[in-house]
Design brief:
Elements (H helix, E strand, L loop, with lengths): L2 E5 L25 H11 L3 E4 L1
Amino acid sequence: MLIDAHQHFWTLADRVGEWPPAELEAIHRDFMPEDLKPLLDACGVAGTVLV
């Protein structure tokens, strides 16, 4: 069984600070569980630890 050591979710409108910066186009967007699920499935990851 493969488990990811940790996972972050974020909504840009609710964040404090400058992360993720606009220069990181791939992640400068809201990122929620429904965004992660296809990636986990594709890599055979059974679960993650939410931080």
